[in-house]
Amino acid sequence: MPHELDIINPATEETVATVPVTSPEEVDAAVRRAAAAQEKWAALAPADRARLLRRFADTVDAHLDSLAHLELLEAGHPLANATWEAGNVRDLLHYAAGGAERLTGSQIPVAGGLDVTFREPLGVVAVIAPWNFPMPIAAWGAAPALAAGNAVLLKPAETTPLTALRLARHALDAGLPEGLFQVLPGEGKVTGAALVDHPGVAKVVFTGSTATGRHIAARCAAQTKRLTLELGGKSPNIVFADADLEAAAAAAPGSFLDNTGQDCCARSRILVQRSVHDRFMELLEPAVQAFTAGDPADPDTRMGPLISAAQRDRVRSYVPEGAPVAIRGEAPEGKGFWYPATVLEGRPGDRAAVEEIFGPVAVVLPFDDEADAVRLANATDYGLSGSLWTRDIGRALRVSRAVAAGNLSVNSHASVRYQTPFGGFKQSGIGRELGPEALTAFTETKNVFINA
Ligand code: NAD
């Protein structure tokens, strides 16, 4: 086991920091500290927990620029995107703080007395985060868990622990109790596994690949541990002939190139009605070319590098020699894990048309009619998100109901808002994050009968 993680700037390949890893013994000590802090935290009045979480949000807000810069360094995100991500953490902390004050139980009159229902915190929650959106995804788990009265142990991805460590410092500065929100950097198979297997951890929130998610689910099942899984996607972007084609083509690049395609909601399968296929491709090409890749610190940059050389190799494997490339963007040469925006003419059954690529690559598949579009959209083991573009409200409703996915958008590519539930059907996950129910996902329901 390495003792340190080298943190590499993916745009320059320079080492920007080294971070000590957390051993299984240190995980055990962290769980004990968290459990002690959680008891005190849960005993606070909800309004006091809310006040401290708002102060945490204000501290994040005061350091928005430096957090964004850190995300740029460790993940290569363009500065504007990284700033939005830090703002998302702040907003979510405020939203969760409001939820802490609104978390109520119920009273149910029954024969012979009254049933009173409470929402009790779970205890210590482990959040295992990926590298693609290091800050927001950590906060989607941590903020509601804290608001509901739990302690949080966050295991960031190997490549991106810096923003997580900084958030933990801001939490302390804001007055959250020592030990309540700890960040444990390290390898998944060592530090992550020790957390998942620790009997003192009541729930695991995991975001990452479906393969790792299944492994973690099996480990949790062995201890009847609570679990939320946010896994991969292969989301469709369905463009009907009656759509505003200009708008659909203008929005399409962002839907699979934002975050260099390293987005579980990436609309990496573009399904276009055959009658408008050629016109749509004509419109798409300049829009993809305009999605500039380059220095993440440059305000004109829309797309940064991939996270690592290994991720670039993986993406390359989906575009072998002779692949049917329809559109190709430009990417910087030299240092950095760059890969150009790429649109492939899809052939159903091709690896690129069915597997999650997690890079700036989309496939275009033509369809004939509404039924064909729905069939193609559902021809995947995943079910996270998707978009449909049409001017027909009836069709929008029919197709939205027929596509098996947790988060769909009509005439838009919006996927995630902290006010609304987010999560997947099928192999894309179990449970929901965000939205009004996020807090209750971090509670046990307790019913008390009072004999009257
Ligand atoms: P991963 O699923 O292996 O890792 C995600 C997190 O889980 C990391 O923090 C990792 O350290 C941890 N982890 C790994 N093995 C673990 C274990 N046995 N026990 C506990 N924790 C463990 O993802 P990856 O290797 O970083 O990326 C591989 C692929 O996964 C990507 O190419 C992409 O397709 C997919 N992915 C999807 C998402 C998403 O949001 N859906 C995010 C990241 C990666």
UniProtKB/TrEMBL annotation:
The active site is at E230. Keywords: Oxidoreductase. InterPro entries: Ald_DH/histidinol_DH (IPR016161), Ald_DH_C (IPR016163), Ald_DH_CS_CYS (IPR016160), Ald_DH_CS_GLU (IPR029510), Ald_DH_N (IPR016162), Aldehyde_DH_dom (IPR015590). Its EC number is 1.2.1.-. Coiled coil: none annotated. It comes from the Bacteria. Residues 5-448 form the Aldehyde dehydrogenase domain. GO terms for molecular function: oxidoreductase activity. Belongs to the aldehyde dehydrogenase family. This is Aldehyde dehydrogenase family protein.
